[in-house]
Amino acid sequence: MAEALQQRLAAQLLQRIHDGTYPPGSTFPSYRAIAAEHAAGLGAAYRAVQVLRAAGHLEGQPRGRLTVRDAPGVRTLADPDAEWPHGRGETERSRPRADATLALRLRCEPRTQVACERVELLDPDDRPAMLVTSWWRGRRRPHESYRISVSMHRMTAGEAHLLGLATGTLALLVDRTRLDAAGAVTEVADLVLPADRWTVGG
């Protein structure tokens, strides 16, 4: 409940940045002013502002006055299969059983146990840039080629939390399938990229 309030408040504040209520370079309201205006607690106001700060919309020290940053530049992901040249943040590994959709992507039977890795990739200044979740069967194998499809996607609560954004933020979802020399699937992945920061090239 508290996290939902925080994300909702963060989304409202982000909308005010986007609509020019708080233009780039302006001083952002204090936690107390935000709490009063939105009938929220100071804790919720603080956490909502930290979501915006982690996402790069605000700059300054947490206990000082924060200002609105210029909109982040839009970059192009030219090669969705290339090694990421910058840092990595939080990494989660698990061994789930494939549901029907994942089994179809991996060309295996539903309920097959697979390996899963979710990695937060960071910008050069260590801010979250994108989230990559990969699945494969058995040992991770090299691949010879890949194919992708791109669609629009609303971030889930878990994705938004890792990227420091509000739940429901619009993102690009890159569905990547890696293939061996014979054309067999070796690995599939979902790349989640904030839509206001990225385009995907081919």
Gist?
26% of the residues lie in helices and 32% in strands. It is of the alpha+beta class.
Terminal residue distance: 41 Å
Number of helices: 5
Mean pLDDT: 89
Largest sheet: 6 strands, antiparallel
| Helix percent band | 25-40%
- Rg over C-alpha atoms, rounded to the nearest angstrom: 19 Å
So what's the overall shape? elongated
Proportion in β-strands: 25-35%
Give the low-pLDDT segments.
none
* Structural classification: alpha+beta
**Elements, N to C (H/E):** HHHEEEEHEEEHEEE
Question: How would you describe the overall organization of this protein?
Answer:
This protein has 202 residues and is α+β, with helices and mostly antiparallel strands. Helix content is 26%, strand content 32%. Strands 4-5-6-9-8-7 form a six-stranded antiparallel β-sheet, covered by helices on one side. It has a two-stranded antiparallel ribbon with strand order 1-2. Strands 3-10 form a two-stranded parallel ribbon. α1 (2-18) packs across α3 (42-54). The chain is elongated, with a radius of gyration of 19 Å. The termini are far apart. 25% of the residues are buried. The mean pLDDT is 89.
State the main characteristics.
202 residues; 6-stranded antiparallel beta sheet; alpha+beta; two-stranded antiparallel ribbon; single chain; 10 strands
